[in-house]
């Protein structure tokens, strides 16, 4: 493992769920010089502003966790925003990092880069082998572009820009918007409100049959730092010039129905679960093949129920802070 605790590290997107977890992880590992910049200080969609920021700060490493994210409803409703903002953010940061001589960068993508009907569990080699899920295609294309940007700067300029593709993430600082959030925060909030209202039932989007894999964000942060600290020779030995990303997941999945039943237990809801099959299900199954990451010495440690308890505890204790 390569660790230089004096490195100046920029965590782009530090106020988000993933970025804040990476900051926590880096701090716990002893890194002292962590740079962060909020939207009021730096607009990542503004190329000139990003270039100026890199010129004025001597940066050794970048964690590119900034992104415009959301669930099925948000992706369906705001496709232009999802593709434009994400393309601009990643292109601006990667180019500015290169221009400023930053050698090490980690790009965080998403499991939605893989084809809708990819063979399960999804291997890294499945990238660009089939049609994407229609509901989040613009977001997925932006994330694929980020991978290819990193690959291209590595090939042309000899940079060490790495990419990790997380499965569905959840945990502290998640987005709990009733319509624009991902499935776990949406359900945690819905069940919490149902308990408060003493409701008899909770309605869940879709049939409940799709299978999903979930990873606590603290596990994702630990994996990200692990991959970033890997010796360059070891990292390259486990990737390929045209396949330079690594899956990050738990390697375990469950149905949406099973997830809802677990969340009901975590929140104390004892009513009826109603599945609204008129709502879109999205991809039938999404499970990551994480064998490559295991070969590199890392695997997840937080199981789903314990992770959900932690996420729910944070939600209850931080009502004034949650993004709604």
From TrEMBL:
Record keywords, A-Z: Isomerase, Multifunctional enzyme, NADP, Oxidoreductase
CDD domains, per database record: GDP_FS_SDR_e
Single biological process term from Gene Ontology: 'de novo' GDP-L-fucose biosynthetic process
Residues at the catalytic site: 139
Reaction(s) this enzyme catalyzes, per UniProt: GDP-beta-L-fucose + NADP(+) = GDP-4-dehydro-alpha-D-rhamnose + NADPH + H(+)
Keyword Amino-acid biosynthesis on entry: no
EC class of the enzyme, as a word: oxidoreductase
Residues involved in NADP(+) binding: 13-19, 108-111, 143, 166-169, 182
Similarity comment: Belongs to the NAD(P)-dependent epimerase/dehydratase family. Fucose synthase subfamily.
HAMAP family xref list: GDP_fucose_synth (MF_00956)
Name of the featured protein: GDP-L-fucose synthase
Gene that this sequence comes from: fcl
């Amino acid at each position: 493992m390569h660790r230089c605790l004096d490195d100046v590290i920029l965590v782009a997107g530090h106020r988000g769920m993933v970025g804040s977890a990476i900051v926590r992880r880096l701090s716990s590992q002893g890194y002292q010089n962590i740079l962060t910049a909020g939207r009021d200080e730096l607009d990542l969609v503004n190329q000139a502003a990003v270039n100026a920021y890199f010129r004025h700060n001597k940066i050794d490493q970048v964690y590119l966790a900034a992104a415009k994210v959301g669930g099925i409803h948000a992706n369906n409703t705001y496709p232009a925003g999802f593709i434009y903002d994400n393309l601009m953010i990643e292109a601006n940061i990667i180019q500015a990092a290169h221009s400023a001589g930053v050698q090490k960068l980690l790009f965080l993508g998403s499991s939605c880069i893989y084809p809708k009907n990819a063979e399960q569990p999804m291997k890294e080699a499945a990238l660009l082998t089939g049609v994407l899920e229609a509901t989040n295609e613009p977001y997925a294309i932006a994330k694929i572009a980020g991978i290819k940007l990193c690959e291209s700067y590595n090939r042309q300029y000899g940079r060490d820009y790495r990419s990790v593709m997380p499965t569905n993430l959840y945990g502290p600082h998640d987005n709990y918007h009733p319509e624009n959030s991902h499935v776990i925060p949406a359900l945690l909030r819905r069940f919490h409100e149902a308990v408060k209202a003493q409701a008899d039932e909770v309605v869940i989007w879709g049939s409940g049959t799709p299978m999903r894999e979930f990873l606590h964000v603290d596990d994702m942060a630990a994996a990200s730092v692990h991959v970033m600290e890997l010796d360059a020779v070891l990292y390259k030995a486990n990737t390929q010039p045209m396949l330079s990303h690594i899956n990050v997941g738990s390697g375990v999945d469950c149905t949406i129905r099973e997830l809802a039943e677990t969340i009901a237990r975590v929140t104390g809801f004892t009513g009826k679960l109603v599945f609204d099959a008129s709502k879109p299900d999205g991809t039938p199954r999404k499970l990551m093949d994480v064998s490559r990451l295991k070969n590199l010495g890392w695997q997840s440690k937080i199981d789903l129920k314990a992770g959900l308890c932690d996420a729910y505890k944070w939600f209850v204790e931080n009502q004034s802070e949650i993004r709604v």
